Structures are given as C-alpha cells and as structure tokens.
Amino acid sequence: MDFLEGLSKFPIWHPPPSTKPSPTYLGEERHATIFLAVGQAVNEWERFELQMAILFRTFCEAESRAAQRAYGTIFGALGKGDAITAAATEFFRRRSSPNSDDAAMQEEDKTRLKKLLKAHTAAAAYRNNIAHGMVWEMRITRSDGTTASGGLYLCASPQTTKKLELPDSALSTYYYRAAEIQHCTKRFSELAYFTLDLAARIENHYLDPAKDPQE
Length: 215
What we know:
This protein is mainly α. Helix content is 53%, strand content 10%. A 3-stranded antiparallel beta sheet has the order 1-2-3. β1 (133-141) and β2 (147-156) form a beta hairpin. The radius of gyration is 21 Å and the shape is elongated. The two termini are 37 Å apart.
C-alpha cells in the first residue's frame, strides 16, 4: 500500500462498535486470547509513537536522538501533536518559496501532517482503552430470561470513572473481544507506516543539502 498517495486516499477507519455483551455479541473463551491481542496492540502503538518521534526529530532538523528523547517526555497525544505542529510551522516558514510548485507541495504536506495529527489523537483514545482495560467475564440474558456467561471481554477498570457509563455505575463504555482489539492494531500499523513515509518524504525533499532554507 502506498501511503504517500495522500491522506485524502487514506483508508477510512471506523472505531470498534459500542456493543454490549449479548447472545449475539459473545466474548472470548480464554483470557490468553485477549492478552495476546492486547500485547500486539500496545506493541504496534509504540512503533507508531517511535515514527512520530522520528517525524518530530526531522522537523527539528536534529542529527542526534535528542529531539526524540524530548518528544518522549511529553505527556498525552495533544501535547505531542502541539510539539510537532510548532516544529513543523518553523520548518516550513524557513522554506517559504514564491515558486508555485514548491508552495503547492508545502500545502499538500501541511495538510497531510494536520490529518495525521488528528488521526493520532483519535487513535490514542483507543490505545488507552486497550492499555488500561481489564478482562472481565460478563453475564448475558437469554431470550427466555435466564442468565449465562457471555464470555470474556476487555472492559474499563471500575476505578476508571471517565470510561464508565455513569459515575456511580460499574458498566463499561466498551467491551472488546480480540477482533475489536485487532481492528485497532491494524489502524496503529497503518498510521505507523504513513508516518514513516511522511518523515522520509520531508527529509528527502526539504533537507537536500543542495537546497538552503531561508533564514
């Protein structure tokens, strides 16, 4: 898949459904199934964050990993996005050009970056659901009114107030099976590859030693 065709062609992503346990939405039989999916998701998210750190370093025009280390100290997706935006703003300002082709390319890359940062912030919420969830066995009500085990789901921890339906409720706002977690993992992977290619594009086009940026 060519992620440099532009974010306008970036695959549309639909978040996991907010479906509650039921006879038609049964959970997993084994804890290990969810544990494995969670591990894969968290690993893929960290790969995405690594590429975001490299993108930040690229905009900072840093030869060492100092910028990456600084990026890693920033808490939250919004803060990291603000840091990348600030670095990118100065990066492009120093390369403003009256040439219409160069100007058009810059606007295109700025648009790609803006959409990437929006996607990063949105995806972070699902990463948090996965990384901070707990596996619970849930009960379901059958059509005849009797109850039974609905299987295992990744849910919000009871002390995570913002992820509960009501402040005084123990009901989670999400119930993920392995399939829903893997759906998020795929998104993290897509964003990681896109970020990798965007950083390479920025470096190859704008950091050519033959092209001196304006001071």
